[in-house]
Write a structure and sequence with these properties.
With about 525 residues, the protein is of the alpha/beta class. The chain contains nine helices and 31 strands. A hairpin with a 2-residue loop joins strand 2 and strand 3 (about 25). Helix 5 (about 340-355) packs parallel to helix 6 and helix 8 packs parallel to helix 9 (about 500-510).
């Protein structure tokens, strides 16, 4: 046993994988590990994301600590005019760096598909995507157009915003909120997307220097379930509720819990599966909602997908005997490890984005948790690290596929993820999911917390405290805006009404959440809970 640490920071490394023949282990939250059944002289290999692998021969020590060296990447910025190095501001994901006089900065290796942007005075912004290269060369062209993106209320710059040029995501604002283009082309459409703000839009004219002001946005919403889409009167009633109260957001099922689609797809694979169950036309719904300035989120249930497992049993989660596995609702699940499953759901997401939704929200981005999960079989290696890496890479693929659409991305996660650092057996780790979306939406329903969770004999009796503490816990761990799901239904042993609904809302607001959304599976809500508009 021992501890695995970072060579530079001496901080513990979590989720490192250790192996020596049949002996396998993973480091815990404090970097500690225990390997059993080792043979003297066995070679131990340690692998951790973002670090060079390390091997050592075991000499029968009872305590053996390891120090791993982080992988590094060089970013080199130069001028397209004369190849001279440039001092530039470099944005790597959410991290900011500055190149030196040689135009170079060496950083810790980012995640695969991380966006990198570089900008300096008098030059256009250059963007790149990290795909594993040891050196990222960024060549900047002289700029003809400059813009700075600012908060419309505070006037402060908005760093890390995604800029769409004629509907294609191409640039990222630097730490000063700036970006530049090599050409000044009147009529060019600019969209700017930053979490916590409404989508910005401007058209380039003849001015070579402009300021784009983004309006802060906090979602206050309710959920519209799949079944209600067949009842246009009920849909209109919910839209009316949003319009006449403090609400401003509607979450709409477009791919429901049973894998059905709420729209006619042009994808031949989807058409052949006959998964469409269309009620109210989604374009009509969007038109009605957008006329009333309502922000509309499309909920997409991802890996829980009975129709897909029936059409393609080879893509399903299987039992140890090889049969298609079913959860407690007798529904099949698609195997999150398989790329054809990714391609299927991403194709759906692209069609939904093209319909004009403001945000795509991915639910059931996880491995199965309910039913006889002891009988689930995944070919090895099936570990916390492979599960988490699979969800990481899936969300990276989603973000890449949605680049042509100026749409926000969010993910629903289990409420307990904000209180634990392991993957809970389903692949969800708060930090890793949050890094890859614009909003993270934990399902912190008080009723889902077991007795004695959070120190409460019955958490359902403490709606304010559960929400407040959960949002605070999440916000302390991630910089991604946290928008909790709140329960608009009674717990098994505690009746919920307006008082409990209001307590949850107050808890979210007091904790500084990025809004909230109430969930009721039948789409029924108490209007008295929401302040008038």
């Amino acid at each position: 046993s021992g501890v695995i640490k970072d060579s530079a920071t001496q901080k513990p490394i979590i989720y490192a994988a250790l192996g020596a023949g049949d002996a396998q282990a993973q480091s815990s939250d404090d970097g500690r590990y225990t390997l059993s059944r080792l043979e003297p002289g066995a070679t131990i290999r340690i692998d951790a994301s973002g670090y060079y692998p390390h091997e050592v021969q075991w000499q029968s020590q009872s305590n053996l600590d390891f120090v791993l060296t982080a992988r590094t990447v060089a970013i080199v910025v130069s001028s397209a005019q004369n190849s001279k190095p440039l001092r530039a501001s470099v944005q790597v994901g959410s991290a900011k760096y500055q190149t030196d006089a040689s135009g170079r900065v060496v950083i810790r290796e980012p995640e695969q598909n991380t966006r990198i942007s570089a900008i300096t005075d008098d030059y256009a912004t250059a963007d790149a995507v990290y795909t594993g290269q040891a050196v990222v060369d960024m060549v900047l062209k002289p700029s003809a157009f400059h813009a700075v993106v600012k908060d419309a209320q505070t006037g402060k710059p908005v760093p890390g915003a995604t800029v769409y040029v004629n509907r294609l995501a191409t640039l990222t604002t630097n730490s000063d909120g700036k970006f530049g283009l090599a050409e000044l082309t009147p009529g060019t459409l600019l969209n700017v997307k930053a979490a916590g703000y409404a989508l910005g839009e401007a058209t380039i004219g003849t001015d070579a220097n402009i300021t784009l002001a983004l309006t802060p946005f906090t979602a206050r919403g309710v959920y519209l379930p799949f079944g209600l889409l067949s009842n246009e009167a009920r849909v209109r009633s919910l839209i009316d509720l949003v319009e006449r109260t403090e609400l401003n957001t509607l979450v709409v099922d477009v791919k429901g819990d049973r894998g059905k689609l709420a729209f006619h797809s042009d994808n031949p694979i989807i058409k052949n599966m006959k998964t469409e169950e269309v009620g109210m036309d989604l374009r009509k719904l969007l038109e009605l909602a957008h006329q009333k300035k309502i922000y509309v989120i499309a909920r997409i249930v991802t890996f829980k997908d009975e129709p897909l497992t029936k059409a393609h049993p080879e893509w399903a989660v299987h039992t140890k005997s090889g049969a298609v596995w079913h959860d407690g609702e007798q529904l099949g699940w698609a195997n999150p490890y398989l790329k054809p499953v990714w391609d299927y759901d991403i194709a759906i997401a692209k069609e939904v984005a093209a319909l004009g939704f403001d945000e795509l929200q991915f639910d059931y981005i996880r491995f199965p948790s309910d039913g006889n999960v002891q009988d689930v079989y995944f070919p090895p290696p099936h570990t916390a690290e492979t599960r988490a890496a699979t969800l990481r890479n899936y969300l990276n693929a989603v973000a890449d596929a949605l680049k042509p659409y100026p749409v926000f991305i969010s993910a629903d996660i289990f409420g307990m993820t904000v209180w634990t650092h392991d993957d809970m057996g389903i692949g969800q780790r708060l930090e890793e999911i949050a890094q890859r979306v614009d909003y993270v939406q934990p399902m912190v329903y008080p009723s889902t917390f077991a007795h004695d969770n959070l120190g409460y004999a019955n958490p359902s009796q403490y709606p304010y405290e559960v929400i407040y503490r959960s949002v605070k816990s999440a916000a302390q761990r991630v910089s991604t805006p946290v928008r909790p799901w709140l329960q608009a239904y009674s717990s098994r042993d505690v009746a919920y009404g307006a008082a409990q609904f209001l307590a949850q809302k107050r808890g979210a607001n007091d904790a500084g959440s990025a809004g909230w959304v109430f969930w009721n599976s039948s789409g029924t809500y108490d209007a008295s809970v929401f302040a008038g508009n």
